[in-house]
Amino acid sequence: MSGEILFRVAGMVGLGLGGWRLGSFIHSQDLVATEMAWIVSLSLGGAALGLVVAPYLTTRPYGWARRKVSQIAPQTLLVAIVGLSLALVISALVALPLSLLAEPYGQILPVAVALLLSYLGISVMLARGREFSQLLGFPSDIAGTSVGKGPGTRRIVLDTSAIIDGRIADISSAGFITGPLLIPRFILDELQHIADSNDSLRRKRGRRGLEMLSKIQKESGVPIQIIDVDFEEIEEVDAKLVRLAKTLDCPIISNDFNLNRVAELQGLSVLNVNQLAVAVKPVVLPGEEMGISIIQEGKEFGQGVGFLDDGTMVVVEGGRRYLNSQVDIVITRVLQTAVGRMIFAQLKDGADHEREGR
What fold characterizes domain 289-347? Predict the structure, then answer.
């Protein structure tokens, strides 16, 4: 039996008995002539009222409070609890002398002071969380106040697509990411679900993602934080990720085009590994000379195709006869397409090209 049904039954029984007692009380005061009619009516009315309103007084507020607490960063929650505890200790110390005052101040002031000090304690601890956490011996980042502030302190939320892609491990190893990488539990669950899929391709992708996380932990030196924050009222993983990033004010690393657009529309910063790869590609200008290996034939007659180190395709006019050879070329044209760059070149005049293996 679920908790909501149990509380509905308890509310129905409790208010039903209350209606029975109320009907008996009304009859005992000689306010009505017919006892059973009032008792039965009020009992049934109380039972129906208890059945309807019980969840709104028990399980619904509890579920709402639980969701709100789960959305708070653990560091922030810890600092708030410390502030509240200190405030309650001070309130207990001042409650005795205040209670000795004349009525009604002796009853009102201890409660009012406790509420005021609790509010101030939580507010001050959250505002100066980092400093207080250092005084209390916690790690300097425990307060969670450094999210998105200052160099080397910005947390970044990782999406499943970026983890499976794998290039984030190389970027982290190169030192371009200095802040902690946040991985919510629901992202790990999604990776595990993909790794356990019956489809062989999805299973390989999921296992690759788990391997990439292990590689980042062992080789890059970038801290990975697994957080148990969840949003149970949201079903889609992407929507949960956006809510988390918005709550913590963190950017998202993702290669998912749709997720990037949704996050940007909500004012979130999105770091796309594909955009980074395009941005760091070497600049190649017409007239530039370079060496390249022709590894396959082109679509047009006589063309040969090679690739730069970053994967950019280079189409060489007249390069077909130098297949599997290193040649010197001159860039003639650079074309930017929807799928990336294409470079057109021709053989350098007077170069002596020999086939490999001769």
Answer: OB fold (Dihydrolipoamide Acetyltransferase, E2P) (2.40.50)
Residue 140: predicted pLDDT: 44
Q: Which tokens hold the place of 184?
A: 């919510």
**Cis amide linkage into residue 104, ω under 30° from 0:** yes
How many residues appear in the chain? 358
- The model's pTM is 0.48
Residue-wise pLDDT tens digits, 256-283? 888 888 888 888 888 888 778 777 777 7
Structure confidence by residue, pLDDT tens digits, 97-147: 888 887 787 788 888 888 888 888 888 877 766 666 556 555 444 434 333
Q: Is residue 252 a contact partner of residue 268, using CB atoms and an 8 Å limit?
A: yes
C-beta separation of 15 from 44 below 8 A: no
Task: Tell me how far apart the alpha carbons of residues 325 and 293 are, in angstroms, rounded to a whole number.
Answer: 6
Residue limits of CATH 2.40.50 in the chain: 289-347
Q: Cα separations (Å) of 32 from 23, 28, 36, 192, 259?
A: 9, 9, 10, 68, 67
CB neighbour list of residue 287: distance below 8 Å, 6 or more residues apart: 330, 331
* 156-278 CATH, one of 1.10.150.130, 4.10.910.10, 2.20.130.10, 3.40.50.1010: 3.40.50.1010
Asked if the model's pLDDT at residue 355 lies above 70, the reply is no
Hey, what are 325's tokens?
A: 């050879």
Q: What angle do CA 153, 74, 86 make, to 5 degrees?
A: 105
